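Re-running the complex after MR caught last week's input typo. The corrected sequence lines follow. Everything else is unchanged.
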Amino acid sequence: MRQETVLEATGLSKRFTHKGRTEPVLNDVSFQVGQNEIISILGKSGCGKSTLLHLLGGFERPDEGTVRINGQPVTGPSRNCIMLFQHYGLLPWRTVLGNVELGLENERLPASERKERAMRYLRKVGLEDKAGAFPRQLSGGMQQRVALARALAVQPKLLLMDEPFAAVDTFTRYQLQDELLRIQREERTTIILVTHDIDEAVYLSDRVLLMGANPGTIRTELAVPAAKPRDRGHEDFLHVRRTVLERFELTRAAPAPEFSI
Amino acid sequence: MRQETVLEATGLSKRFTHKGRTEPVLNDVSFQVGQNEIISILGKSGCGKSTLLHLLGGFERPDEGTVRINGQPVTGPSRNCIMLFQHYGLLPWRTVLGNVELGLENERLPASERKERAMRYLRKVGLEDKAGAFPRQLSGGMQQRVALARALAVQPKLLLMDEPFAAVDTFTRYQLQDELLRIQREERTTIILVTHDIDEAVYLSDRVLLMGANPGTIRTELAVPAAKPRDRGHEDFLHVRRTVLERFELTRAAPAPEFSI
Amino acid sequence: MRPLSKTAATAFALLLLVAAWQAVVQIGHYDRSLLPSPLHVAQGIVELARSGVLFEDLQVSLLRFAAGYFSASVCAILLGLTLGRIRPLWTLVDPIVQVLRPVSPIAWSPFIVLWFGIGNAPAIVIIFLAAFFPVLLSTVKAVRSVDATYLKVAQNFELPPLRLLTRIVFPSAFPQIAHGLHLAIGTSWIFLVSGEMVGSQSGLGFLIVDSRNVLRLDLVMAGIVLIGVFGLLLDRTVGLLERWVGRQWGMEK
Amino acid sequence: MRPLSKTAATAFALLLLVAAWQAVVQIGHYDRSLLPSPLHVAQGIVELARSGVLFEDLQVSLLRFAAGYFSASVCAILLGLTLGRIRPLWTLVDPIVQVLRPVSPIAWSPFIVLWFGIGNAPAIVIIFLAAFFPVLLSTVKAVRSVDATYLKVAQNFELPPLRLLTRIVFPSAFPQIAHGLHLAIGTSWIFLVSGEMVGSQSGLGFLIVDSRNVLRLDLVMAGIVLIGVFGLLLDRTVGLLERWVGRQWGMEK
Amino acid sequence: ACGSRSSDSSAEDKPVIKIGYLPITHAGPLYIEEETKGGDYDGFRLQLIKFGSWPDLMDALNAGKIDGASVLMELAMRAKEQGIDLKAVALGHKDGNVVVVANDIGKVQDLKGKSFAIPSAFSTHNILLYQMLKKAGMAYGDVKAVELAPAEMPAALASGRIAGYVVAEPFGAKSVVIHKGKVLYQSQDLWDDSVDCGLVLRGDLIRKQPEAVQAFVAAYAEAGQKAETKDAEVKQNFKKYMNLNDDELNLSLQWIKYDDLKIGKEPYEQLRSYLKEMGLSDNPPAYEDFVDPSFMDKVK
Ligand SMILES: Nc1ncnc2c1ncn2[C@@H]1O[C@H](COP(=O)(O)OP(=O)(O)OP(=O)(O)O)[C@@H](O)[C@H]1O
Ligand SMILES: Nc1ncnc2c1ncn2[C@@H]1O[C@H](COP(=O)(O)OP(=O)(O)OP(=O)(O)O)[C@@H](O)[C@H]1O
Ligand SMILES: [Mg+2]
Ligand SMILES: [Mg+2]
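Corrected-run output:
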């Protein structure tokens, strides 16, 4: 029914040992992501979202379970599957162009071709004219765009994004979300993003995975039927949003337990 | 028509000189805040929100214009008007109790009474049992509550909050917003808060001041008629929300200019 | 188990060092009086320990060091707090410090004798000087990098100036000051030898200088070993303190 | 205008220092040969400059210093990059460094003479040692505190190990390494005097030691002044470099 | 200022003899020897190397980085005892040490309980202190002997930190010239023909280059004779090495003799017995083992 499966996580568990105490952080997480999908993982702080993303990207090994990308088990980080970090992970001593070229230096490309390819992706995120600037000279939103261009330049099968827009203000965030949708449409990249922002999850994704904590599990999966591009004020959007709020008991109907953070 | 005026800002302007270039950051900002009101100042990153709050609190002097609190011109920071900083400004080497007592050490209070008063406010924010803990042992949400207790303990006329909930996740943010409303009802404090989160502004405030940038000015004032406590899913709420989105051109109706951050 | 394995690693490392030393002695065929072997030096240490000289020297050196180091720390921290808060004053004092700092205690010693005499005083003064400048510099730097938010909070609660210094500036700068104290213990311990060259009749530095005078290089090496080992111990102790401060101040988790 | 006023402040500060010195001389009624006045020392400097000795000494000292300092920096950075990346290795090497570091060059000098002879070599070796340890320690610290995100990015783009070191670890650690280089220039310049005691026949350190031996304390003081002033200049130069690196790397705005 | 700075590097086959010294009056003959013919003699070339302290000099000598030195005889004997192959071939000077005390010290007994500086326990100066106390009927422990760098002694005396000192020249003359101290004894009053500094060479040099050594020692003895004239030229040459003012130089030259630099068996045995008596050495090298008088003997 769904398109070809890009990522398949089965029975992922992860424990951390801290000061001699072993605590389960993730327990039996399984899900699949199809070609060209955008999936959001939504959950409270500390529920294990980043840990899950690190397992998917191969940055850490699960204690149990496996991750497969295009059927191949993941044993370490690879260029197939690029992670975008919350604070962008741009190298401050390189120019914007140098940053985008980073991922291409590995390939046997002549310098001119490498530069051209990097410029193509910079153009795509609208930062052509900033190629010579250093990251510190850019606003947070621009930096996130550079990181996106750098990731796309190696043409990965899968993009992992860890709270990609949490550090920019609401207005910029809205713009970046729109851009991400446009670029994803053009590049047909598969994206898994982690967020604690309900609106973001609903606005961007085809499916939302709601995570519970202690240990982290996927509690519910919610498909978002509305067609993209969506209208943040539209009734369909608001309906899904309300469903999520209710799932997390955040509407007036059932008052939030007061001191449970 | 309105209750007694607590704060009165008239014709505030502020310029910063950076590398020999003088740039206006605020231009002719005027507004009034009444007793027991909650006012949000909403604007994009870098539009001068923090600068405005610093002028109101007396941390910086305006180049033009005056700030009056209860009719008295503000010449410097004072206990009348406490600022809550984005990263809470808790002293990491003091316990939670020690932090709350900080503002009380100036008063001629016996130690026992001081402690009692601090504990009263800790109880109010639900952190009685954390009195002996250090800030680093608390989650972000708890830390913000400690900062709130510390501010309230000196019983200021006015509370200034700079993006108070920007650093916590959405779920915690919702809870903290509810708590802030409850406490404000009990203490009858006047609050001015700065935010870039549209939902937050609409959910909390009696009036929203929309700021424009370059230089920062107040473009519109928007009263939020809905009674508190509000329902984030309710039609009244969504209506105001939509109005704000439209003002900032963030709904689909008028597509956002793509690369203007 | 962690600290145990760390001690084991340290012991193993020192063993390696001794082995390397033995190898140099054997390969180079050095005369015993030019480069003593670890065994000879061990014998030297035993000889010193037996005669009681070792313990006495150690004690007197540690006392002198403590006197110089602690008085330097206190002075440097108090001065640093003041200078760090008053920016124009520091602009003036900074060049003076930078001119005085790079001058070796050996160069100063004729003047130190003139003002402080011989015996304990010059050793203490030289260690004082060696510890004073690094602590002063790091205190000033620490004070000047105190988070502006804390200062604003203090202003907001109307703390009077002295209380601002004791309750906000000092504790807030303390982790970095502690780091400075840690660095300074290493750099000032080096100057024990220079310090105890000026008319001292006891101490580890004197032991080295004196043994050099009488061409007992095995005892010079014994002195080096003792200075090295006690330097390591001092460093580790202050390092622990620094880590504790760091944890207490919430710098690390 | 800023740098100008800073130079003015420096000049004023040094003037203050000279005034304080003159005051001490006058109040203490010290004999000229025990504590020379600024004027006498100025005469001494002029005398040295006239005879050409000053320039020669300065040149030879700066050359020796440069040789010791740069070779130490290169070695320490290369070694530090390696040790910082391989944690168990550093656990072993750290105690060795901490034992060797606090030993004064004066104590080492019999062995330095044995291995390196007299003349230029011991001076360079001693400056090497004095610069090596601080740079090594700060490089290791810098490498170990490289932002984990950068390493993950590098893994993600499958950078090979050597390229990881040159393209990610080194540039990322560089601002902190530059700070270490800045610190080390001060601490190693101090050892110029110790270094030039061992059979050197020229240099600022030799000037001081030699003048001390013939009781020309005015020339000793002249040497101190020169060492101080050049220490200040070296410090300021490397400080500028450090600031430039900081700006380039986006550490400050 | 110093001759050794600008030793021309015209390389020949002649052996270069590197001799270490400290800038003291006691090394006088070496200065004259190097100044004569610029140190370029038939059969060898002399290169003087200045050191800052005795230990630095001994390090270089023991490690074979210099071929010989004008050094305290006691230190050289000590090195020999430790197994370093050294031979003493001549004296540096005769007499020339003075006991300098603060102006308020009238007699030896006044020193009781006070600090008194010597350069090193292994020195003629320590023996002189011992002799002086013994003659005055006091025990060695009656004064506090402190080891101090010679350069620090005048300052320590002037500021009252020590009551007196005995050390190589010109440090004694220094205090006298600035009126911060006075001469209590000259060395010959305490120990006639005292052995102090000696010209010491490494054994391997003597074995490999006996002719060069002979030429060197001959020139040395001649330089001693010339130094003994203490004329204007000699003083001029001394000042190239010591950077002293005239008063200090004249005074310290008054006290010293350079004419007969042979190491006699008698005074040497005296030194040995003092070393044993003071407990400084159990087994100082015998005259036959350590002193090689043959070179001086061949000088007419
Ligand atoms: N390396 C580690 N060692 C020990 N515990 C860890 C480690 N990494 C994460 N944890 C713990 O695992 C839990 C989940 O962490 P994680 O960072 O995955 O949460 P998150 O959902 O991403 O939170 P946030 O929204 O705050 O980023 C937390 O309780 C954290 O303390
Ligand atoms: N001390 C200062 N010196 C020079 N320029 C300043 C200073 N403080 C602020 N500015 C400038 O003033 C403008 C407004 O800054 P401000 O911090 O008030 O914005 P803001 O609305 O609070 O932004 P954000 O949402 O990112 O916190 C910015 O362009 C900033 O660069
Ligand atoms: Mg996370
Ligand atoms: Mg702000």
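None of the earlier attempt is carried over here. Chain B touches chain A at residues 44-46, 126, 139-142, 168-172, 174-175, 178-179, 196-199, 229-234, 238, 241-242, 245, 248, 250-253, 255-256, 258-261 (CB under 8 Å). Residues 86-155 of chain B form one domain.
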